[in-house]
Design goal:
Radius of gyration: 13 Å
CATH topology: Gtp Cyclohydrolase I Feedback Regulatory Protein, Chain: K
CATH superfamily: GTP cyclohydrolase I feedback regulatory protein GFRP
Largest sheet: 3 strands, antiparallel
Order of helices and strands: EHEEHEE
Structural class: alpha+beta
CATH architecture: 2-Layer Sandwich
Number of domains: 1
Strand content: 35-45%
Number of helices: 2
Length: 79
């Protein structure tokens, strides 16, 4: 049995300028362009745990997770 308590806080990046707008609306995501970036991204102020719970209800499941520096990345698949 693996027990893991996720306590990270938001904001959580949830997509880029090519993401499904209906899904971004469902998540309550806001589109922004950070100074110096040449791309747009969607983010929510929710913690990753909240976002992952919402995505599970929308039919997604976590396939893998990794850390990149101080960033956590989840790979999801829609059933």
């Amino acid at each position: 049995i693996v027990n893991f308590l996720l306590q990270e806080v938001g904001p959580t990046m949830v997509g880029d300028e090519h993401s499904d707008r209906h899904l971004m609306d469902y998540l309550g995501a806001i589109k922004r362009n950070m100074l110096g970036n040449h791309f747009w991204e969607y983010y929510v102020n929710d913690a990753p745990r909240i976002v992952l719970d919402k995505l599970e209800k929308y039919g997604y499941r976590v396939v893998s997770m990794t850390g990149v520096g101080q960033t956590l990345v989840w790979c999801l698949h829609k059933e």
